[in-house]
Amino acid sequence: MGDMADPASDRQQPGALGLLLNKDFIASRKGKLLAAEVVLTFITFVCFVASSAAVFMTAPLVEFLMAIFFYFAYSTKFNERFKDFYWPLVDFLRCVTASIIYFIISIISVSKYSGGASSAAGVFGFIATIIFALDFYFIFNDLATFLKQGRAPDEEPQAANDSDSDSD
Fold first, then answer.
1. Residue 99 in contact with residue 133, Cβ under 8 Å?
2. Cα(first)–Cα(last) distance of the chain, in Å?
3. More confident call, 167 vs 63
């Protein structure tokens, strides 16, 4: 009787055991990039709160919360429960918008405000811009590879095949 496998062990664990982090994801490139995004957005948020450029604190706060959500979703495999929701595309859009917004507020923070915390927020914002840009570059490469697998390279598009037909 001890030789039989428990059928419940194949299912997802309910409760707190379902929140265990996936160590493979944490050690992966995506996990490290998301961890860097979480840390940098939090530091940038704290710097903006302490500076005279506090009007810019909303963008780092929102991005910090979104980065934590994606880190949690990927590391607990929460994203696998929603098959119809295309997570890489949403993550790509998050990274593109974050890199643009961080770049803009960092330039304004460094050039318009003279305090030390404003300058620090601008510097950390520029570093976060680079991290977000790297993340969306890697996501874009993965998306392009995925889309190329859908159609063979020697296969012609469907529209070209339709124009050659003789049906009237």
1. yes
2. 71
3. 63
